[in-house]
Amino acid sequence: MHLYTTIYLSLNMVNIIKIICHIICIIFLTQTKFFSYSTNHQLAFNIYHLSKSNSQNHQIQSQQIFIKGLDNRIFRNKIISLLNINKKSTFILSSKDLQLWIRILKRSGFFHSIRTKYNFSQGHQKIFIYLTPNPTLKEIRITNLHQKLISKSYIKKVFKYHLGLPLNFYQLEKQMALVRRWYIQRGYLKARIHLNYNIKTDNRIEINIDEYKIDKIHLIISQNSINFLQQVNLNYWLQTVLHTNLHKPLNLSELESCLQELQKQNIIQHSYYEINEHNYRELFIYLQPLPKRSTYIFSKQKVITRHFLESLEALFNYSFFMPILDKDFSIFIISKIHKYYTYIVNCIHFNNAIYYKMSQYDFMFYWSFLKSLSLSDISHHNVWYIKNAILILNNNFGLRYVIRHLDKYNSSICINLLLATVGPLADCKYHIPYIHLVRYLTSSIVIHFSKSINIYKQYTNDIRMNCNYNTLIYPKNSLIEQHKIRMQIQHCLSKRINIYNNVVINNFICKSLLFKGSIRFQKLFNYTISSNFYRSFIGNHIYNFHSFTQYKLGFTVPFSKKHPQLKNQDQYNMEIISLISTTNINYKLSMVMYKIQHYLQKQINIHNRVFTFSCRLISLIGHQKYLPLSERSIIIGPDVIRGYIKDCEDFPLLSQNYKLEYAINRTKGRAIYLFIDYLANRHEYEDMNAIADLLNHHINTSLKISYGIGLQIITPIKQIPPLHVEYGYNIAHGQCLHLRVHQEH
Questions:
Q1: Do 609 and 700 meet the contact criterion of CB atoms below 8 Å apart?
Q2: Which of 319, 356, 431, 700 has the fewest CB atoms inside 10 Å of its own CB, making it the most exposed?
Q3: In angstroms, how far is the first alpha carbon of the chain from the final one?
Q4: Domain spanning 31-133, CATH class
Q5: Cα gap 569→444, rounded to integer Å
Q6: C-alpha dihedral over 61, 67, 73, 79, to 10 degrees?
Q7: pTM over 0.70
Q8: Does 3.10.20.310 match the CATH number of domain 216-290?
Q9: What's the fold here for domain 139-210?
Q10: C-beta neighbour count of 402 within 10 angstroms
């Protein structure tokens, strides 16, 4: 009896385990779907309306999905990836998801027909998707690809993923758009792409790239005074410069840029072009050259000032013969003046030994000197000094004469004569804009001679104490007579890399107005300032001759092949400038100065945001005291750093200038952008305390940072560069509004 009970319990346990296994299998089957693939093709096109099965979704216990027509392993994997199919998923595919699958398959463009079939029986659902793909693409032919501008490697990269897959015209149109974009970005705006498909040879397509070659070019020059020989030479020269040869692709962007360059070089006055496609492609270029000879006579008046209100105040005082009020000097200030000049006695600077730096207290005495001398006959110039200000009324009468030779090279001679108040000016320039002797190499030559007399605005205020203990003080507005001979040779390689070499020979004669006295400043410590000392100062002039030769070698390389003729392109520029003084006979090689400049500009796209980054590094190799007088200063304006007033500083040993712009809104005619600028200059100054203990130097760093907002406006006149209106705020809690134009680097 006990054995029977044991067997009975064992059988019940087995039955219970079987029942539990059946329940688990039922639960598992109700949440499972099966995928299978078949290579059977269906020719009919019929789409099942899935809305009829929406009410049955809750009754589905199991599901099978059959996708037929995927006979290509590569294509099958692509469809699985396209539909994002997970074969290990345990979720039932709803009618909404199935409808999304069908929509994705139709939009893919790979199939000629798509047919769906639905079957439901005893809680089990079967879905059949019958696909009829397009013919498999086995060959892509590009007509005369070896004669096209586009590279073979780029074509392979664009179309290689279409081979072995069903023919997809939608995707092919996208790839052909990339080929069109390649031509448009390089200026070939008329290029066209044609796709040829033959049903009989349905496994192959042919792509014809029409690069828009010109059959005939008409160069029409609207000037009757040109003879036949000049017409022939000019036609040859212009066709070479404009790069518009017969039976070659027409680059409209390059043609427009060349026409603008001809106007910029003052070769032509107006130009435009037309294209006629009636019977064959004809290009008409209309040019109006400038006259062979032209003469201009002009007269103008210039007023140059920095602090206009101070200038008006001084003008008012001198107009009514009102003396400038004297200053009261304390014993403490006079002792500082005495201590200052004891350090610089017998100290000589290179190339300008007669000059010494002045203390700020010297100008306190200068007002008194000026009061008694400006109205006397001893002063040779009716000018006055205002700290950091210049006021000049300059009546100029000028003559300009230009001679142009319309020949193969179209050279020109320009002569300028100016009879200014401060002195005569002469300027002569001979220019050959284009010399095209070797393929892919264009050269230009400029020979320039000039003689000018002007006001040297950035002059340092110095004094000299000679052996007779005479003190020489002169104002800031000294006259500079300059003789300059300049020769520039520029080469353009393959219309991209620009290499230039300049040789400039400069001769300076600095004419300064001084006030000479017979006393030394240390005597002021024991005397009180009175009118008796004013009469001891008389006006005089000194001449400081200085000459140097400048060699400049530079090159510019654009980063991108897209529109290499456009402004503001991504580029790298490097310049090496050598300055060799010819004033001193015993000039040593160690006294040669080198200025090295690196300029980098790059446009960066980050998540559809356009950032423009530029960097300029300038380094000086050599001692600053060997710099020529005219090269010892640098202008710091809005083109260097925005948010600061334009100023002049000593040339730095090292200058680091970084700019970052972010375009907020860009349209065809304007752009709004945010900017941040950084400028750090390192200077080398002579420590007066250390000069007495032999030479010693220390480094001073000048840091400027600003940020703000700007607006760029493009005028409809092509000759006017883009205008920039910028408002900046700097770290010195200052602000400034700038209006400037784009300057090429």
A1: no
A2: 319
A3: 111
A4: alpha beta
A5: 22
A6: -90
A7: no
A8: yes
A9: Ubiquitin-like (UB roll) (3.10.20)
A10: 18
